[in-house]
Description:
By secondary structure, the chain is of the alpha/beta class. Helix content is 37%, strand content 17%.
Amino acid sequence: MLVKTYAAAVQGISATLITIEVSCTKGIQFYLVGLPDVAVRESHERIISALQVNGLKFPRYRIVINMAPADIRKEGSAYDLPLAIGILAAANETGLNTEMLDRYMMMGELSLDGSLQPVKGMLPIAIKAREEGFKGLIVPKQNTREAAVVNNLDVYGAENIREVIDFFCGKCELEATVVNTREEFYARQQQFDQDFSEVRGQESVKRALEVAAAGGHNIIMIGPPGSGKSMMAKRLPSILPPLTLQEALETTKIHSVAGKMEKNTSLLTQRPFRAPHHTISDVAMVGGGAFPQPGEISLAHNGVLFLDELPEFTRNVLEVLRQPLEDRCIRISRAHSAADYPASFMLVASMNPCPCGYYNHPDRQCLCPPGTVLKYMNRISGPLLDRIDIQIEIVPVPFEKISERRPAESSECIRERVIRAREIQSARFAPDPQTYCNAQMESRQLHKHVTPDEAGNALLKNAMQKFSFSARAHDRILKVARTVADLDDSADVKPHHLMEAISYRNLDRETWGM
């Protein structure tokens, strides 16, 4: 007897329909074809044990299973459930309703006792099930809330293979999981553990972070140890505009594929904040591996990638960031497959001005030998620095500011200004849906939306000549100036907006020995 069950294979952040064809004829053999990897081939032993523990016998037939399309590699243990149900249905020994199998997609890993374990990538799988017109999706109980985000699809959670068998035999009903996506999304959006009201002093740095958040600009902070670089970076998500529902779905898909979803979480409601250690490899940063998986830059999509102590990262790791910073996506190519992952993130970096940390310090003397500062700064290449829009120096907070009891401006107040600036940008870029903020402007948009007057052009020309800015730095200055003007609710980019943008190019100046 020939029976078909249905599953899905995740490629990148999308899923492809997999049809599992099971044929049972006379004989005692087992064949599994269709490019299964080792984990899929090992499903044979897990299925045998799961059936025996639940009072069922593995059919004694010649079983041939084809996982179509055969040219797509099938990876992981998520196919255990559809394989087991297909085998039982083809053997026709348990009374499964084979007509019902055409209406449901199934995914789940089997334990030896028949219990179902959660699997990765459930959100893109659920989206594919709806696209293919399936009535429902049967998944492990732990994956139900994640899959139920997709509307117009019944999502059933099962704890054991016996529940699924009884469901297809008509002996019991599985309860569909319902998630009110919009209600849950908006209820949890503005919950932050850290706030800028806790930061004393550093008004100029907080202003630079506000500009960065308003325009989606990359930023680097340079200052001595203990000046608050990491503290302020961790509070940056609290002033970013809230995720839209579309952004939340896209971000959740990436975390789902990477297996980073927390238990019983249906949807990411806050912008991600990723802070990898400086010992990270280039593959872990951009993604990849023998079987491509998203890296840190994709996990930070629509959020913040924070690199603390930037010069301590290896040169290879820093250089692989250059292309994603420009293209906002990364393509991982391997001999047997390729995957595209989105990588539209804000790069936030921090660093000491020298190895000892006290170069240019107002009170403490730098102890680094001659030439060490230049060598330390040269660990960061010029092309990478060019891609960082805002470069701001941090000085230590004086005692008077630290001991001040009056709370500083809250994140909520700053976020309101950021949201207003983003609304201006949304209206500006409405005809071009690929552009969301000023940092993403292309050259044609830059020339259209940023037109300084004669005084502004003279100011910019003087700065270009004095500090030897590159052409890319010129464009970055204009983008930042446009954001400053948006925060000022100004339709035109005025000289004082350009002046502030130019002041954010600290590392391009000779004072740092560059």
